Amino acid sequence: MPWVLVFVSGLLEVGWAIGLKASAGLTRPLPTVLTIAGMIASFALLSIAVRQLPIGTAYAVWVGIGAVGTALLGIVIYKEPASAVRIGCLALVVVGIVGLKVTASQPP
Question: What are 50-75's pLDDT values in tens digits?
């Protein structure tokens, strides 16, 4: 269950990161409120998850989900560059996230 919380909190991180752009620097009321609510929910879920997970691994996975998701939505929504190198780098981040998740449950 804690990994599900990390995953959902990572998705919320994507939402609030995109919300930062949509809020135009926190100047548009509705996107600003939604962005701040997403931040609070994301941090709350992550804080619950790290009660049972290693903080370094959980945080890295959370950040990775947020970074990859935000970059992909930036490409799709905001027409940001989608070069092969950029996609390859995002794939490397995904490999790192999976590797951290897999090794987090292995005994030392």
Answer: 999 999 999 999 999 999 999 999 99
Distance, C-alpha 24 to centroid of its chain: 20
Cα angle at 62 between 45 and 64, to 5 degrees? 160
Question: How many Cα atoms occupy the beta-carbon half-sphere of 69 within 13 Å?
Answer: 20
| In the chain, beta strands by DSSP E | none
Q: How many domains does the chain have?
A: 1
Q: Which domain holds residue 53?
A: 2-104
pTM of the complete model beyond 0.85 = yes
Determine phi and psi for 68, rounding to 5 degrees: -65, -45
